[in-house]
Each structure stands twice: as C-alpha cells, then as structure tokens.
C-alpha cells in the first residue's frame, strides 16, 4: 500500500516532466550540400541527452549522456537512442551537425518537424531528416565562427572537438 501511495505521489508531483513509458530509438538522418544536393561524407554528428528537472524556481536541464558519429559516403548517420525508458525524465536527443568549411546546424530532435525555422530548412525522407549544410567562403567562416562547444565532458565529444579545431586552424586560430 505504501508503495502504491508513493508511486501515485510521484506521478502527481512529476506530472509534465516524466514519461511513464517511452522508447528512445535510433536517430537517423542525412546531410547534404545545400547548393548541390550531394551527400557530404565525414560530417560530425553529436547527439546529446539531457534530463528535465522541475524545481521551485522553474525547469532546467542536466547533461545525461552524449554519442557522436560521422556521416558515411551517402551522407547518412545513425546514433543509437537510449532504449526503453520507464518513469524517465530523459528528453529526446539534441543534435549538433558540423564539418569544417560548412555552416553548422542543430537543436532538439523533437523540434525538427515543429519549429518554423527547421521546417524551412530541413526536408524529410520518410522519418529521416535531411540536413542541408552550406559551404562557406573563408570570409563567411570567419564571420560565423565555430559552433559553440556544448558543456559536456570532452571525452564524449572527441570527434566534434577535432573538427572544431580543424576549422579554427584553417581560419588561422589556435586549436581547442
């Protein structure tokens, strides 16, 4: 009986910040050149998960985990999700996509279909988003800068750190 009351209390207290049951499956996508439509190989894709926390002062997110990969010769990538989640406050993956010499993009995965910005830029092949990256001139690269490195452990983003360092070196700056 005590367990049932405790579970009921938890469900009421955490309503809105927890999923009773959710499957966080594999995230798949494709990266293409915005001008040519050709796939881009070797683009770094960083997936980051956060937990949603509701407190007296409002809501915030805490870092949970990260995984990264690179696109294949077809510009495609796949990042395994976190699987079956029961009574979890784990948010869907946030994605950061970057290759030296190109624009970068990213954001919360669940916003890719909903956000007006993403609707204008990202096309869909079935359930797979297609991210167009614009090749930039050196002047555009210097103006834009490198993507902001997320505040996550460096060992979880070695590929992204290497790619950002490559971009910085090509622009005449010190690597990270």
Please state how the strands of the largest beta sheet are arranged side by side. Answer: 5-2-10-9
Largest sheet: 4 strands, mixed
Count of runs of 4 or more consecutive helical residues? 4
How much strand content do the residues show? 35-45%
C-alpha termini separation: 55 Å
General shape: globular
Overview of the structural elements:
The structure is a single chain. The chain has helices spanning 2-13, 116-121, 138-144, 158-170; strands spanning 19-24, 27-33, 44-55, 58-70, 76-79, 83-88, 94-98, 105-108, 123-125, 128-133. By secondary structure, it is of the alpha+beta class. It has a 4-stranded mixed sheet with strand order 5-2-10-9. The protein has a 4-stranded antiparallel sheet with strand order 4-3-7-8, with helices on one face. A hairpin with a 2-residue loop joins strand 9 (123-125) and strand 10. The longest helix has 13 residues, at 158-170.
Features:
single chain, 176 residues, alpha+beta, four-stranded mixed sheet, four-stranded antiparallel sheet, 4 helices, globular
Q: Secondary-structure blueprint of this entry?
A:
Blueprint: H1 2-13, E1 19-24, E2 27-33, E3 44-55, E4 58-70, E5 76-79, E6 83-88, E7 94-98, E8 105-108, H2 116-121, E9 123-125, E10 128-133, H3 138-144, H4 158-170
Parallel strand pairs: 2-10
Antiparallel strand pairs: 1-6, 2-5, 3-4, 3-7, 7-8, 9-10
Please sum up the structure shown.
The protein has 176 residues and is an alpha+beta fold. The protein is built from four helices and ten strands, in the order αββββββββαββαα.
